[in-house]
Amino acid sequence: MSSASEMPSNGDAKPDSPVDLSTIPISPAGQDKPQGKSAATGDEQITVFHDPDNFNVKHPLMHKWTLWFTKPPTGKGDNWNELLKEIITFNSVEEFWGVYNNITPTSELALKSDYHLFKEGVRPEWEDIQNKHGGKWSYQFKDKRSVAIDDVWLHVMLAAIGETLEEENDGEVMGVVVNVRKGFFRVGVWTRTIGKSIPGGGDGDVAGGKGRPTERGQEILKNIGRKFKEVLTIPANEVVEFSGHTDSAHAGSTRAKAKFVV
Questions:
Q1: Does some domain include residue 7?
Q2: Which domain holds residue 137?
Q3: What does the alpha-carbon distance between residue 208 and residue 216 come to, in Å, rounded to a whole number?
Q4: CA 13 to chain centre
């Protein structure tokens, strides 16, 4: 149990090649979402993907982001790396909307599906070198019928790529994830640390965590949690919990004791 979608992973496996957007994910009814058409007018939506060489109106993002998708398992013998699919990497606002408008909404995904939106070069797995010292803020929407999960997930993704979940140079946010389960939707934000300074550094070590006082690191994480809670627009008396990946691995993902709550 070692990934954003709680499936076992193989740390030695290489990332999959980007997947054709027209092939995944498929809605539960077995039909693809209509491609490139406006529901209101029927007119074709022109995006960067129509002519990337000549489409020059782009608003660049601070980081490149990769969208991943986890297909529902078909049996106990399913390999994590066969279920986890790398969809596409993008680095502009226009490319984001081009992707978003051509994938199945979260509300229409089959049970045990997941979307993961992570910074380029970071796999949505606990073992990834940039995740192994980290943790995540998460919240479960237990009444699935009363939550507009498509809007929630969109706003969480926009907060991530818009760099509004943390302050400049915090270097904590690694990615965001949404899990579709029988009894709930769960949305999370993965962070690079658990508030403690990362020992040693090393290959793949980037800004955030190294040499930072624990008190400062924990305050940064709590600020991320508070901003995440605002994006979720949940009642003030609802609790968003933070747990470390290592604790989750030992306790069994969703049963890990929360280190912080907001």
A1: no
A2: 60-261
A3: 11
A4: 20
